[in-house]
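Q: I'm teaching a short session on how sequence maps to structure, and I want students to see two examples side by side rather than one. Could you give me a first protein with its sequence written out and its structure tokens following it? Keep the formatting plain so it prints cleanly on a handout.
A: Of course. Example one:
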Amino acid sequence: MKTFNFKWMAGMLLVMLCMGLSSCSDDDDDVDPSSLIGTWQLNHSKGYEIYDGEREDWDENDNSMFFRFETDGTCSEWEKGYEQDKEYGKYQIKGDKLIVIDSDSERSEATIKKLTSNRLELETKESGTDEYYDYIVFIKIQ
């Protein structure tokens, strides 16, 4: 799987902005932003990418990435063993969308499929000439 970082997340989340709320139920319940506060560790990623007509699939457990969401709307991301290289940004939740703006002002968005006190599931999609889909599961560790 490609390196998971803010720029990657920005790209995948931006795609979700264009997707709208087509996969949401009619109840329009907003996500409770306070549930997101804390440190989350990547647990699992499943998806595919079609680029230049070639498809690459993945379905892997991965605990190498971490995200931290603060009450003041800031966030950080780092890879295990590289805490000194943290990337910083800002986030917000609008409806069922998690929007992240990284330090380079790149905006990304993902659909929050599930958010509980200890589990975060995000979905991203991109379609067009090339296609991308990822379903990512995080576990809260702090």
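Q: Perfect. Now a second example for contrast.
A: Example two:
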Amino acid sequence: MKRLLITTVSIMAIGLAACGNDTNEPVVDEGATTTPTEQPADTNTDGTGTTDTTTNGTKDETASGTTDDMKADMDKLSFREIEVEISYGNDIEYEAEIEQDRNEPIKAKVEDEVNQVYLKGQETFDDLYPKVEQLQLTKDSTNEETINQVLKAFGLKSDYQKFDVEIKFNDGSKLDIEERK
């Protein structure tokens, strides 16, 4: 009976000692001869499309720097939002969007069923920005000019069934083109 009691108390003591380690460091057997390993950085997506990189509880400045870079890039464009939806039939669509609302993080997404590519956040922005940067469109651009530039910039075929693009310019004007074949 004493042996059972001693065993139970020993197990509880070991369990409490392991639970009491709240420094996020591994429990090290002091008799063991191992060298400590470096803990990898934790990365979490915070819903804004930026990556929050932390190491030992301190925030890395790359997340806010990336957001600032995206904002600086968007400020170079004549528009603050673009939404492209192109349908090729058989439920195959290409959708891309960059949205920059005031005092809000930049949102970007790609749902490319043509090439089976689905992106969100920073990766999407990095993919889309060079494409939208090529566009030389204004609120007065013709349907044909808009369609040709968008298809060329995004590397898409012209055999679409439905083409829809909406651009909101920095001055508040819009370009909204919808065409069906």
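Q: What should students look for in example two?
A: Point them to this: The mean pLDDT is 76. Also worth mentioning: DSSP finds four helices and nine strands in the chain.
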